[in-house]
Amino acid sequence: MEFLGLIWDQGIMRPMINALALLYHYLFLNYGVSIIVFTVIVRVLMIPLTIRQTRQMKKLQALQPRMKAIQDKFKDKKDPESRRAQSSESMALYREAGVNPIGCLGPMVIQMPIWIGFYRAIIRTMPTTPEGMANLSASFYAWNPASADVPFSRLFLGIDLADTVSQVYLPLNFVLPVLVGASMFITTKMSSTIAMDERQQSQQRIMQWMMPVMIGVFTYQFPAGLGIYILLSNIVGVFIQYFVGGRQPIDLFGKLYLGTAETRAEAIAAKTALAERNQDNDDSDEEETTDDDSTSIHRQERTRGNRRRARNSRRRARRRRH
Questions:
Q1: CA-to-CA distance for 244 and 238, rounded, in angstroms?
Q2: Cα(122)–Cα(75) distance, rounded to whole angstroms?
Q3: What backbone phi and psi angles, to 5 degrees, belong to 184?
Q4: Residue 2 pairs with which residues in a beta bridge?
Q5: How crowded is the C-beta side of 53, counted as CA atoms within 13 Å?
Q6: Alpha carbon distance 212, 215 (integer Å)
Q7: Which of 16, 78, 234, 240 has the fewest CB atoms within 10 Å, i.e. is most exposed?
Q8: Could you count the other beta carbons within 10 Å of the beta carbon of residue 135?
Q9: By the 8 A CB rule, do 273 and 62 touch?
Q10: DSSP line for 231-290
Q11: Long-range contacts: 243-252, Cβ < 8 Å, 24+?
């Protein structure tokens, strides 16, 4: 555990504190501007991950019809062996296409420790006690000129960046969490693939709403500096994802926004193909239900016919005896 703590402190916390302090020193002693520039730098450094995520998403999208075929193959088989066989075939398909489903979560996974580190960095770079000042000075590299600027100014546009968002003036204390949640929602929509069945669509809807709402609610108790960082990170990420991903349109509440004529046509074609596939599945289910109903009716008619023949046979037998 001490080793992990050392990696966290020296590999994430100390570089982040020094980077923010250095930006503060050269950007007019303004911590808010430092956060903005730091956000842009982090998102630019993550562009290779965004490119990889986009490629993985496109490959995953192309595999959806074949994945659906595997799911249909094992649709009515619930035994453990069938489940293992389905999982094995799915993983073989992923390996064949060179797709890693977890790779689509790359930027999100990387951002989580950055958010945590940024939260701690804000607290440590804006101490309110002499002990905190001493700890901050010990975190600086020897060459960092920002050590002479301590204590840093906490104000940006009238906001105390170290205070929680709930303590920010009205209406920004409510607007900021809403903007964070909305930007997270758009980011999540842009990073999702088109689900091929109802179960996947349901899971997507839960994730697309749960994460933005959760982060938005949490933002209300985050330091204002962290809330600004997350909002800017999402906005910059949307622009990067849009241009890196080939200007794909954003599907919000059933309508397409932005995109080029070509990408909008591709998105409409994909949605149309999905609707037709779902309609075919519904028709198949109805036919199966109709066939089952017809079989049940024929069986009942045969049963009634057998009963009538049995009754008639008993009557003839009684007549012969008399």
A1: 10
A2: 51
A3: -65, -40
A4: none
A5: 25
A6: 5
A7: 78
A8: 12
A9: no
A10: HHHHHHHHHHHHHHTTSPPEEETTEEES--HHHHHHHHHHHHHHHHHHHHHHHHHHHHHH
A11: 244/47, 244/50, 244/51, 244/54, 245/54, 245/57, 245/190, 246/54, 248/190, 250/186, 250/189, 250/190, 251/189, 252/186, 252/189
**How far is CA 290 from each of CA 179, 279, 285, 293, rounded to the nearest angstrom?**
50, 16, 9, 5
Report residue 102 as tokens. Answer: 């977890």
Q: Is 220 helix (H, G, I), strand (E, B) or coil?
A: coil
> Is residue 193 within 8 Å of 60, Cβ to Cβ?
yes
Chunked in runs of 10, what are the mean pLDDT values of the chain (322 residues)?
A: 78 90 92 92 86 78 77 76 82 79 64 83 83 84 88 88 90 93 87 62 75 90 91 90 82 79 80 69 54 60 70 66 59
CA distance 93 to 73: 14
Which residue type does 297 have? I
Give the residue carrying structure tokens 């930006």: 23
Cα–Cα dist 126/162, whole Å = 7
Q: Which two tokens stand for residue 217?
A: 């609610």
Query: Looking at residue 168, what DSSP letter applies?
Result: S
